[in-house]
Amino acid sequence: MTRVDVALFQIGYGDDESLADRVGRVCEWIREVERPDLIVLPELWAHGGFASSSWTSTAELLDGATVAQLSSVARKMHTWIHAGSIIEKADEGSARGPEDRGLWNTSVLLSPEGHVHTTYRKIHRFGFGEGEPRLLEAGHELALTDLDWGTESTRAGLATCYDLRFPEMFRKLGERGAELVLLPAAWPMPRVEHWQLLGRARALENQCWMLQCNTAGTHSGLEMGGHSQIVAPTGEVIAELGCDEGVLTAQLDLDMVQRVRADFPVLDDRRL
Hints:
Nitrilase/N-carbamoyl-D-aminoacid amidohydrolase
């Protein structure tokens, strides 16, 4: 039986903390916890989920300071770290995307050796013409990878925040073998019930684990929703946080995915 310990860091922040100070604070916070097998951070926790006016000036390369510091932590703790997402900028001379913006909302998964293992550029940009759609390129590729736990491994899919509203994306991840979905977010308080409901729905309809890590605090005039949650393949929330900054920990029985799919093989009856 494969059981792994996970920790979701629901980071709270405001507008008075610099990017460098926040990254330093969070790295120190991670070092203080008992080592889990997997750590997940929220979407744009360093660059500000709604701080679009500063994204161009604070954007980083994938080997920039934020990822480099978290890579060091992953290596020293020898644990998987999903670093949440950063505002990634194109390296000089590299492709800038079809809209010539050269900026992406990019999730970064770090291996226990501290290497950039997998990246995912957010496909669905939130903002209805403002914010992300106006400033950032859209990703166009699904991201899946195997998380190795020694003698066992788990197929994981990556998604980000607003992606949660598009069930076809999660169905495609499931079709490609995802048993676990890592979903960082900067989801606001006014729609936090949607966050909770949609996470349970995505887990239940695809019979997979959902690890949803949100932000807390208030920045750019918006209160973040918190309520990070871990949802089992049955749709049951096995662990959740409230509104404030905190760490959500749980032990996952990863074999549950196969048991649930065998006991209730609804996915075999799909016709469309």
